[in-house]
Amino acid sequence: MIIKIFVTIFVVFAISRAILRHRDGSVKSAALLIWITIWSGILFFVWWPKVSDYIAQSVGIGRGVDALVYISIVALFYGMFRIYVKLEFTQREITGLVRKLALKEKNKIKK
Amino acid sequence: MKTVIVIPAYNEERVIGKILDEIIKCQYHDVIVVDDGSGDKTAKIALETGATVLQHMINRGQGAALKTGMTCALDEGADIIVTFDADGQHLVSDIENLVEPIKNGEVSVTLGSRFLNNSAINIPKFRKFILNIAIVFTRVVSKMNITDTHNGLRAFSRDALSKINMKQDRMSHASEILDEINYKKISYKEVPVTIMYSEYSTTRPGENQSIFSFAKILFKYVLGRIMK
Questions:
Q1: Is the N or C terminus of chain A more exposed, i.e. has fewer CB atoms within 10 Å?
Q2: Where are the domains positioned within chain A?
Q3: Are B60 and A89 in contact (CB < 8 Å)?
Q4: pLDDT in tens, B209-228
Q5: What is the pLDDT of residues B35-82, one digit of tens each?
Q6: Cβ of A107 and B75 within 8 Å?
């Protein structure tokens, strides 16, 4: 029971942060909806774990908790890949800026 | 025909002056050095020799430095662009052999090969092993039947270089250039060149030829192909 309350408090905190970020414009409406859905889903399965068991068994996985772990690992790997790709694009943009400056400041040595 | 030599350099104060003097002595007066965020006097020494110096404020990798130098060379009206390493492994006398087939219209790109005439002097065994894997990989992925990859000594015609779209900042740019040559159907030939491995060139800071470094280059290259 205690863990359920802790998770609920954390989910409320996480959703409130997402709403605040949405208000200041750094999170788009679609992203806010996705985050609220994910956190609400987590909350749902924490309070009604038997539902996850039922879903897991219907796709051939023994327990609901196992299914959640599998899904989480896949989601985390995908998220990591997305972040890595975004990082690569950011790196390219930094290189572009560094290049522009270098070409503009030809033969002006800083050191 | 205006030939411009592009040299990416990172912390090469010990050798850059000597290399530039040799190049200028051989009547190549259009030299662009791209100081890739060095913490030493590489840029200052290069400027004193009369080369054009471009300075990256922070280190962005050899691929990025090469592209900066190539962009500048094209802006300055170069007809032929030669890429040359700053660590003293290349011979200035090889430049003419690379430039000649482009000058006479035989091909648009020439790629230096250290293995055509077995001219990799003092090559460490492990590096030869890694290079052999890279050659097999290039033959399979880039579908180019070449004898050397990751050789920094190359020459491009202006037209060919304008077609090559480089996005890889770090060492995987070498495979990317080969891919572009193949994809854009640019004519090329390999030219035998000598690579002199010295204690300096194999042990200098930043020189990392471990299996992990190779795996990292491979990963970046694959990721770059996905992101294109």
A1: N
A2: 1-47, 65-105
A3: no
A4: 666 777 777 777 777 776 66
A5: 999 999 999 999 999 999 999 999 999 999 999 999 999 999 999 999
A6: no
The reported pTM is 0.82
- Specify the CATH number of the domain B3-227: 3.90.550.10
Contacts of A89 in chain B (CB under 8 A): 227
Euclidean distance between CA atoms B41 and B46, whole angstroms: 9
Select the residue of A89, A91, A102 nearest B54 (Cβ to Cβ).
Answer: A102
pLDDT at B206 over 60: no
Please report, to the nearest 10 degrees, the dihedral formed by the alpha carbons of residues A105, A111, B4, B6 taken in order.
-110
Largest Cα–Cα distance in chain A?
Answer: 70
Q: Give the torsion sign (CA, B154, B160, B161, B167).
A: negative
What percent of chain A is predicted at pLDDT more than 70? 99
The distance from CA B102 to its chain's CA centroid, rounded to whole angstroms, is: 17
Over residues B159-201, the pLDDT tens digits come to: 999 999 999 998 889 989 999 999 999 999 999 999 988 777 7
